[in-house]
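Researcher: Final request for today, and then I'll write up notes for the group meeting. The sequence and the SMILES for pyridoxal-5'-phosphate follow.
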Amino acid sequence: MDTESALPSATTTPSRALATEAVHAGRDDLAALGLHAAPIDLSTTYPSYDSRAEAERIDTFATTGARLDGPPVYARLDNPTTARFETALARLEGTASAVSFASGMAALTAVLLARASAGLRHVVAVRPLYGCSDHLLGAGLLGTEVTWTDPAGIADAIRPDTGLVIVETPANPTLAEVDIRAVAHSCGSVPLLVDNTFATPVLQRPVEHGARIVLHSATKYLGGHGDVMGGVVACDEEFAAVLRRVRFATGGVLHPMAGYLLLRGLATLPVRVRAASASAAELARRLCADPRIARVHYPELGGAMVSFEVYGDPHQVIAGVRLITPAVSLGSVDTLIQHPASISHRIVDEGDRQASGVGDRLLRMSVGLEDVEDLWADLCQALSGEEPGARSVSARPARTAAGSAPGARQGVR
Ligand SMILES: *Cc1c(COP(=O)(O)O)cnc(C)c1O
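Model: Predicted protein-pyridoxal-5'-phosphate complex:
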């Protein structure tokens, strides 16, 4: 077995590799049910002739937040289809539990509310974060008070009322990386939340490095096809129980159809991430060697995201792509490109945006599963500012001396 991709034995007995979990976790009971595909349960309510027993079950849920035995009573408590996705994602992240939500932002909201309910409204966070996460923390919409700092300043920023430390690595949109183990150490007893949307558990499992809470916008790589919105938090069962109570009370549930699509998406996650990452690394290498590009951001960790700064007009590149789709979001089977200062990070104050490296010339590209030569040709024609079709010779430049290891492709950062 590939030991690198084996999951911690505490959570899987016997230990199965990540690629195996991706296609089997959350589906282990299907054969016994006489099924092959996971069933979709669209019920909003569940009949019961025993209301005394229901009262007891509701009391148990209200006091413990533990998952109910038997049918969910009402769809805002739980759902068997979304529960399969939660089981599978927890397996992939190596956590005891996972709790799903209607979107990544609903998931982050639930985490903040869960900590605030313990009287801990202060958050320490490292920029950049996804634009709306930055906004949710800073705008005071949930009464959160945030101290922004760099990784080295975390220990000093922690106060008695600090409930959470938040980092994204690689970060949206600069792909800046933080050392999770070092940051977790700085957090002491304060839980560290790592937004693992960009890396996915295929490339990085933050709990193995000391994070307590892992957040995903499931809308991105977990779904993987740009057709489902969701969020999920992977964590220990104690915190999951609080999150379930918050979710029940506030209602940001994942729809069962979305749960089904996310479970299906997980099956191909390792294959998609590895294939797209190989193309992204190659595009990053070629961009590094391209005189039209001022700077390329590509993580040491690898991954399918590439960001780059152009000397010319970034809006012209967005207007010029033909195969690549000019759209926000990421993690789909097709390649997307967007201008963070205009879209994904528009809601962040301009000064804060610039200070965290999100400049006006930065473009963020989510590399999909197209042939890398076709992607490069489209990028080249968009960068050249020529009309599509005007370029008659191959857009592919001569190979450069850069090596083939991901670290060597990084070039200028
Ligand atoms: C998109 C995104 C989110 C928000 O997720 P939604 O599903 O859009 O609500 C949070 N974090 C990161 C890193 C993201 O890219």
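Model: DSSP finds 14 helices and twelve strands in the chain. The chain has two domains: 18-267, 271-395.
Researcher: Thanks, that's everything.
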